[in-house]
Design a protein that fits this description.
Elements (H helix, E strand, L loop, with lengths): L15 H11 L4 H8 L3 H8 L7 H11 L3 H6 L13 H31 L5
Helix pairs in contact: 2-3
Length: 125
């Protein structure tokens, strides 16, 4: 898990561009995806990651939200940095699928109960 530059010892995170790149990768985004979501050209995003340009403050704040990091981490490396997402295992996905299926079934039963109650009171659903 990556939380700050103290815990991730590489040269790539010692500049704003390095932290932008690290945050983007941890978020699982390509440069094109990140640029599109932020509403900028891919060339602009590439320039930021290569430390050839810097984003305006408003863009930096939006970028932090997009990447799931704090603006202060992007600027200084201090604060809430990116967290690597654990890969989901097939068993995890099956449990999530079963849980969601059970929740849908429970909601369907509740909807039927409400509809029946409305019909008994003379308010057809």
């Amino acid at each position: 898990m990556i939380a700050s530059t103290d815990e991730f010892d590489t040269a790539c995170d010692d500049t704003l561009g390095g932290r932008i790149s690290l945050g983007r990768e941890a978020a699982g985004l390509t440069v094109a995806q990140a640029a599109r979501r932020l509403g900028v050209m891919t060339e602009s995003w590439n320039a930021w990651e290569r430390d050839r340009d810097v984003p305006r403050a408003s863009r930096l704040t939006m970028m932090a939200g997009l990447l799931g990091v704090s603006p202060s981490w992007l600027l200084t490396g201090m604060g809430s940095g990116p967290f690597e997402r654990p890969e989901e295992q097939p068993g995890d996905l099956m449990r999530a699928f079963q849980q969601t299926s059970d929740e849908i079934a429970a909601l369907n039963r509740r909807m039927q109960e409400i509809a029946a109650s409305l019909e008994r009171k003379g308010n057809p659903a």
